Amino acid sequence: MSSEGSSLKQIAVSAAVLEKDGRVLIARRRRGDRMEGKWEFPGGKIESGETAQGCLRREMKEEFGIDIAVGPLVGRSRHAYPHAEVDLWAYRVAHRAGDFLLRDHEEILWVRPSSLQSYDFSAADVPITKILAGKRNATPVDSSPRAEHFLQIAGLRFRILERGPDAGRPLLLLHGTGDNAHTWDLLAPPLAKSFRVLAMDQRGHGESDWAVPPAYGCDDYLRDLRAVIDILGLEDVILLGHSMGALHASLYTATSPGRVAALVHVDIEPFPPDWNRKYLLGLYRNLPDSYSDMDEYIEEIAENAPTLAGSACWTWHRNPWPVWATGGAGSTSGRSSPGSTIMTCGTVLQTSAAPRW
Known about the structure:
Layout: E1 9-20, E2 23-29, E3 39-40, E4 43-45, H1 52-64, E5 67-80, E6 84-97, E7 105-111, H2 126-132, E8 147-153, E9 156-163, E10 169-174, H3 188-191, E11 195-200, H4 218-231, E12 237-242, H5 244-255, E13 260-266, H6 274-286, H7 294-303, E14 323-325, E15 333-335, E16 349-351
Parallel strand pairs: 1-6, 10-11, 10-12, 12-13
Antiparallel strand pairs: 1-2, 1-4, 2-3, 2-7, 5-6, 8-9, 9-11, 13-16, 14-15
């Protein structure tokens, strides 16, 4: 490694750990390359404004002609070559579509992890081979999704984050109005121990596309949901929706009851009272179209936040506003939040269909 004051050029790269039948894909550089003859985990330089995951999707398409979904981090490695200091981030990926083409490499092999160290790897890749062979502790990995899907539906791109085993019963999570798929980041990991958990960015939210011209009616959301379930081939799916997401989940269940094993509501009633509808409509009509910064938005929402005595307030992660709820079986809970990215563990769940799991 170079010292902190090194004048070497700093390069961030991402690498793909693609497994098939217990073997890992490795590729050998072409003759004439700077690293000619060396084996590596395929990938490349992370360009300005690009994420490591986006880099991998681009590189695997360019180098091999395949589409991938990017999963969790495997490990990180740094090495100072004579020409540059490389910061390498290796991620597990899944092959989604396309046949392998050799465009930038001389050869590819599928190798058992225990045999990786028998090959002459580029120096920055060597620590990753040790992690995969179990001879070095992996970089601690958080509860990140194991895969990230991007689906094209009626001209819009939608993102779905996936956790849990492929063979698990599918559980599709739908966020509320001001949120995105990451609103489930605390709840999804424990659920993924038993279910195949899929969290969707609905249109106009997260990394899914905006509809232009605007099209955000219930029918639009319902068509999106129906397409996602069809494309992913989800049968006997459990739908868990928060607020707006619960409304869309309910509409799907009502129109396709044979495909839904259970419907779970979070922060919404099957028949919201009229006062609640009027309150929400009034709130959104009075909000400006945009804000100069997040603090201005938070102040605006806080002025309209419902409050109760301290005994009714639950503690949230990354949410300073109180949560209010009614007690008893089958109760509902509401909240006021600045579009926080994390769900509270204290939220009440209400099952609205007989579960079949």
